[in-house]
Specification:
Layout lengths: L5 H9 L1 H17 L5 E2 L13 H12 L14 H15 L8 E4 L1 H13 L5 E6 L5 H6 L4 E6 L9 H7 L4 E7 L11 H15 L7 E5 L22 E6 L12 E5 L6 H14 L7 H9 L7 H18 L11 E5 L5 H10 L2 E2 L1 E2 L8 E5 L4 H6 L1 H12 L1
Parallel strand pairs: 1-10, 3-4, 3-5, 5-6, 6-7
Antiparallel strand pairs: 2-8, 7-8, 9-12, 11-12
Helix pairs in contact: 3-10, 5-9, 11-14, 12-14
Length: 397
């Protein structure tokens, strides 16, 4: 009996690795206790929100008990919040934008899904460098879009510009770049982003239906070693930026994000209006009101990034001492480490025996590697050291 559609069945299979590791982690913790398991599988930010969040929430609560304090708001978001976001994004993107260019969404995921509903027709293609965030295929696939991953260039995982150019066809509708990247931690250079933007402009010079450059930036604040995350809006008028406050402010459960369309884009107002419409008709209606007001109150703050930097350096030490190859991530809070054997699932299983949970690279469209998330306490990272060494010794033997 076919309970679900073939498309959803395929999506369920492709995302099963992350789900499998999550469920395996719960099983191991029940069996051996929380302190016996080192779980690096999920990117769930554990660092507390900024201390000022408490006062902001109290102010929001005081206003919430008034009539319509928590009622519906405009589908594109609370006007004052959109203006606040525009001021922040104008600085971040080195381009003047206004509130009417911004749509508040249910996380960055809601921004992507609403955008794809607005522009993707069945058979349209969406290019992204691989490895990539696993849900991209589902997000565009809901509307008949086809994800076309282009392998990046290890060990640094720079995007393959020539490969991206070769992958472009008349049906290509968007190129997604995710920098800082999940799962590699790579921050794309200005030169590489300029090259991708030049491809977009070259294609659009001969097109009626534009090719968009989407910059997915939920980890923008997580940049280390003095590396700067380049602004994308100045590079092409066909750029759109989307992001969230899930990681930056540890508000993952509030599901608050945004979509920004370059005001220089031809017919930009129609795109913003379309995303506003799809934001409503997909069932989101409007982004959570409490989340909008909280994000606006904390828009110039971040969580304590030094905590993540310490974890990054400690994880690098643990992996190096175990003999595991990796490129030091410049951003986000992940490591994409090379498996000692070609089948990364075999390495994952070996680590499971040491009660260490990681996700195979094949779950992100790039086999032969594993992803480790550093959004865990330093004690857990330190505790994993001997287990990594034992697993690697088994492969050496």
């Amino acid at each position: 009996m076919q309970t679900v559609t073939p498309q959803i069945a395929k999506s369920m299979a492709s995302s099963s690795w992350i789900r499998k590791m999550f469920e395996k982690g719960l099983e191991l913790k029940r069996q051996f206790g929380e302190d016996a398991v080192c779980d690096f599988s999920l990117g769930n930010p554990d660092v507390p929100p900024p201390a000022s969040a408490k006062g902001a929430l109290e102010a929001i609560a005081a206003a919430a008990v008034k009539p319509l304090g928590l009622g519906y708001c405009p589908n594109a978001g609370i006007p004052a919040v959109r203006e606040t976001m525009a001021k922040m994004l104008s600085k971040q993107q080195e381009t003047p934008v206004s509130g009417k260019d911004v749509v508040m969404t249910v996380g960055a995921a809601g921004a992507l899904v609403s955008f794809f509903r607005a522009v993707v027709e069945p058979g349209d293609e969406v290019i992204t460098p691989a490895p990539y965030f696993v849900e991209y295929g589902a997000y565009c696939g809901h509307f008949g879009g086809v994800l076309k991953p282009v392998p990046s260039l290890p060990p640094s995982f720079r995007p393959d510009i020539a490969g991206i150019e070769k992958a472009i066809t008349p049906r290509t509708r968007a190129i997604i770049v995710n920098s800082p990247n999940n799962p590699t931690g790579c921050i794309y250079s200005l030169e590489d982003l300029k090259a991708i933007a030049a491809l977009v402009d070259k294609v659009n010079a001969t097109r009626e239906r534009p090719l968009f450059l989407l910059s997915d930036e939920p980890y923008r604040a997580f940049a280390f070693d003095g590396v700067k995350v380049p602004a994308v809006l100045p590079l092409t008028k066909f750029a759109c930026v989307l992001g969230s406050f899930s990681k930056t402010l540890s508000l993952a459960g509030e599901r608050i994000g945004y979509f920004l369309a370059n005001p220089a884009m031809p017919d930009q107002a129609s795109l913003v209006a379309a995303v506003t419409l799809t934001n409503r008709t997909l069932g989101f209606v409007n982004a959570p009101v409490i989340g909008q007001r909280l994000a606006a109150a904390l828009v110039d703050e971040t969580v304590d990034l030094e905590i993540y930097d310490r974890r990054r350096k400690l994880m690098a030490k643990v992996l190096s001492e175990a003999g595991i190859e990796f490129e030091m991530p410049k951003g986000a809070f992940y490591f994409f480490a090379k498996s000692p054997v070609s089948d990364d699932a075999v390495f994952v299983d070996a680590l499971l025996k040491e009660r260490i949970l990681v996700v195979p690279g094949k779950g992100f469209g790039f086999a032969g590697y594993v992803r480790l998330c550093c959004s865990v306490d330093e004690k857990i990272i330190a505790r994993s050291a001997e287990g990594f060494k034992r697993a690697m010794k088994g492969f050496a033997a």
